[in-house]
Amino acid sequence: MKKKRFSIEQIVAVLKQAELGMPVADLIRQVGISEQTFYRWKKQYAGMQSDQVRELKQLQEENGRLKKLVAELSLDRAILQDVASKKWPGPR
């Protein structure tokens, strides 16, 4: 099956339709998603507006980028400490 990508606005719109009383079975059939996908979206985005969801995604991406930077800097620091702790031969 072809994997579809839904925008944040589309996901929020689907969740709003479910909140307004549309049966979940009809909704997932109409949108073309699995029940598991619907409930994952509901767990992740329930009660949020599309701008809040977009901001959440941006913050998650920035958090991942910052974690990667911290890991790289920690590795660099450990390497430098290892090199500095070794005894260097004196001048000849």
From TrEMBL:
Read off the InterPro entries from this record. Answer: Homeodomain-like_sf, Transposase_8, Transposase_8_domain
Q: Which GO terms describe its molecular function?
A: DNA binding; transposase activity
Q: Alphabetically list the UniProt keywords.
A: Coiled coil
Ranges in coiled-coil conformation = 49-76
Residues annotated as signal peptide: none
| Name of the protein described by the UniProt record | Transposase IS3/IS911
- Could you tell me which Gene3D superfamilies the record lists for this protein? Homeodomain-like (1.10.10.60)
At the top level, the lineage of the source is Bacteria
**What Gene Ontology biological process does one annotation of this record name?**
DNA transposition
A Pfam family annotated for this UniProt entry: HTH_Tnp_1
